[in-house]
């Protein structure tokens, strides 16, 4: 499913939507491919409270996109599309993957209401949607992404596998953001191993998420910043 919209909503609009989502008592089925809930169904509000990135972190990741002048972004884990909306500001093209079709449908309706531009939402588990997209991008000679944000399937081995799959699609000088790097011991182990990879010129640990980059001219360093 694809959504193409046009506008640039304000932070106030996005945060108003976040508050609305948190109060929504509508029940929807749970389709969980990662290390999250085992419930059969849950309210929109409960999912929003646990799954949405906090405002300051969504804003910070969008500011990273601003800083590197990102034009094309891949997000793995849409949820209700609030962080997606932040990333899609300034007409950036965002491809986002969501495993739960009920959540994806809600996110797309919100993007429509906000008038956002250039968002493509692909539904299905990462194990299904990502290989399909890799084949598609290869056949279309896709130029790759300036920023990739992995926010789903919080298991260390899965994170490492996804990073290896998408590394060739991160443009030279691009940024990879990994969410919930301290979610569990195996996520921390995965994050530590990723930082050691010589492919990356620098890394930064913001506790809730980590950043890896291939930007040239940087000394191989690992930074830790909590805010």
Your description of this structure?
- This protein has 227 residues and is an alpha/beta fold.
- It has one domain: Rossmann fold.
- It has 8 helices and 11 strands.
- The chain has helices spanning 11-23, 44-51, 55-67, 82-87, 101-114, 126-139, 156-166, 185-196; strands at residues 2-3, 27-29, 41-43, 72-76, 93-98, 119-123, 145-150, 170-179, 202-205, 209-213, 221-224.
- The strands form 2 sheets. It has a 9-stranded mixed β-sheet, with helices on both faces.
- A hairpin with a 3-residue loop joins strand 9 (202-205) and strand 10.
- Helix 1 crosses helix 2 (44-51).
- The termini are far apart.
Summarize the structure.
The chain is α/β, with parallel strands linked by helices. Helix content is about 40%, strand content about 25%.
Mind sketching the topology for me?
Blueprint: E1 2-3, H1 11-23, E2 27-29, E3 41-43, H2 44-51, H3 55-67, E4 72-76, H4 82-87, E5 93-98, H5 101-114, E6 119-123, H6 126-139, E7 145-150, H7 156-166, E8 170-179, H8 185-196, E9 202-205, E10 209-213, E11 221-224
Parallel strand pairs: 4-5, 4-7, 5-6, 7-8, 9-11
Antiparallel strand pairs: 1-6, 2-3, 8-10, 9-10
């Amino acid at each position: 499913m694809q959504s193409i919209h046009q506008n640039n909503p304000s932070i106030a609009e996005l945060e108003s939507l976040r508050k609305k989502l948190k109060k929504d008592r509508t029940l929807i089925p749970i389709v969980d491919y990662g290390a999250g809930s085992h419930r059969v169904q849950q309210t929109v509000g409960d999912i929003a409270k646990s799954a949405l990135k906090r405002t300051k972190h969504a804003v910070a990741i969008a500011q990273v996109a601003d800083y590197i002048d990102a034009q094309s972004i891949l997000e793995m884990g849409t949820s209700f599309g609030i962080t997606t909306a932040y990333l899609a500001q300034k007409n950036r093209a965002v491809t986002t993957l969501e495993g739960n079709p009920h959540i994806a449908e809600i996110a797309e309706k919100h993007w429509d209401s906000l008038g956002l531009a250039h968002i493509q939402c692909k539904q299905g588990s990462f194990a299904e949607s990502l290989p399909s997209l890799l084949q598609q991008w290869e056949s279309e000679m896709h130029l790759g992404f300036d920023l990739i944000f992995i926010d789903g399937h919080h298991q260390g081995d899965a994170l490492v596998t996804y990073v290896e799959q998408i590394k060739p699609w991160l443009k030279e000088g691009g940024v990879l953001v990994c969410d919930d790097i301290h979610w569990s011991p195996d996520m921390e182990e995965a994050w530590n191993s990723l930082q050691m990879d010589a492919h990356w010129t620098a890394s930064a640990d913001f506790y809730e998420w980590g950043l890896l980059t291939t930007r040239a001219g940087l000394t191989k360093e690992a930074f830790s910043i909590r805010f």
